[in-house]
Amino acid sequence: MSYLKIDAIHKSFQEGLPVIKNFSLDIPKGQIISLVGESGSGKSTLLRIIAGLESRNEGEVYLDGTRIQNPKEQLVPGIDEIQLVFQDYHLYPKSTVEENILRPLLLFDKKYKESRLEMLLELLGLKAFRDKFPRHLSGGQQQKVAIGRALSVEPQVLLLDEPFSSLDTIQRRELIMELKTMFQNLGVTVLFVTHDLDDALQMTNDLVIMQKGKMIQKGHPEEIFSKPKNLYAAKLFSHLNPLPNKEKTYIRPSDVQLFKTSGIPARIIERQYLVHYNQLMVKLTDGTVWKIEDKKRVFAEGEKVFLKWEEEKEITFSKV
Ligand SMILES: Nc1ncnc2c1ncn2[C@@H]1O[C@H](COP(=O)(O)OP(=O)(O)OP(=O)(O)O)[C@@H](O)[C@H]1O
Asked: What Pfam families does the record point to (predicted)?
């Protein structure tokens, strides 16, 4: 059932140059959805529109049936029920962790403030840091404070705008796992925006792919992996090797098998040691260069190799 309904949103900052094009998405209550798109595809603009902080030219956003107003229709843009969290935390540098989290609760009752603060510090593992200033915290801890501040007003929806981009890979993975469980326990509806597919997959199973302001595809990653709607959606998952004799048809490096005696001949021109396999660059007889995965790490640079793959693994697009 639709809870957060984004209905045919259209947005241009300049006449004739749309940034969001007819974008619709229904998110059921309590779901976590990842929205993946390249830089400039309109992700932040869309989040700001959903939060009521940016005006839209066409379309509507509804939360549980209530229309979200455009900023111009409100005295103070935005609503408590929908909170936006940014990549660069937006913390108050001269306020402690406690003060940052309490900031949106200025007008709330003292008892409520105290209990909400204790609950959030506990939930986010920030009790030991309550009196520290943001500059004394790691990037991950600062982002937790920003999320704590967003959660202080008990929002129904959290919009996360590339919240982990400033963190290193290990910090990111740990924080995503921790937050995912927390969001599920709180029952909050989350739209997580990122340009990193790995982060998106760590956070959720439901993916939405956006390109140039349009929704390209949505669904389970497995489905998008095997039946991508376009080259951009396909390339989010891996490199694609073009088939020499078939137009607009590709094969993923992980789907190509390597043999020593039979198959399509190629010469290894480069070998790179990666975590899970050796990545080989091979030159086919027509000069095309492919990327291949040597999972057993048995092939060497300069060696001749033979390639095979199952036809059903080939990916063909009607248009690229
Ligand atoms: N206030 C604005 N005025 C004019 N153009 C804008 C404004 N905000 C965004 N844009 C333009 O809209 C397009 C989409 O920007 P947006 O920040 O929404 O993309 P994004 O997908 O979030 O990108 P990134 O991942 O780099 O943050 C860009 O071309 C940007 O320059």
From this structure: ABC_tran
CATH of the domain at 210: 3.40.50.300
Protein residue whose Cα sits closest to atom 26 of ligand 1? 39
Pairing of strands 257-259, 304-308: antiparallel
Give the other-Cβ count within 10 Å of 29's Cβ: 15
Q: What are phi and psi of 221, to 5 degrees?
A: -55, -35
Task: Give this prediction's pTM.
Answer: 0.89
The domain of 63 spans: 4-231
Residues 284 and 191 in one domain: no
Q: Is residue 252 located within the same domain as residue 199?
A: no
Calculate how far, in angstroms, residue 272's C-alpha sits from the geometric centre of ligand 1.
36
**Each residue's pLDDT tens digit, 201-220:** 999 989 999 999 999 999 99
Candidate from 43, 199, 236 with most ligand 1 atoms within 8 A of CB, to mutate: 43
Q: What is the distance between the alpha carbons of residues 141 and 292, in angstroms, rounded to a whole number? A: 39
Within this chain, do residues 164 and 302 fall inside the same structural domain, yes or no? no
Distance (angstroms) between ligand 1 centre and the Cα of 40 equals 5
Q: 208: helix, coil or strand?
A: strand
Closest residue CA from atom 30 of ligand 1: 40
Ligand 1 atom, smallest distance to 210 CA:
21
Domains: count for the chain: 2
pLDDT over 90 (residue 318): no
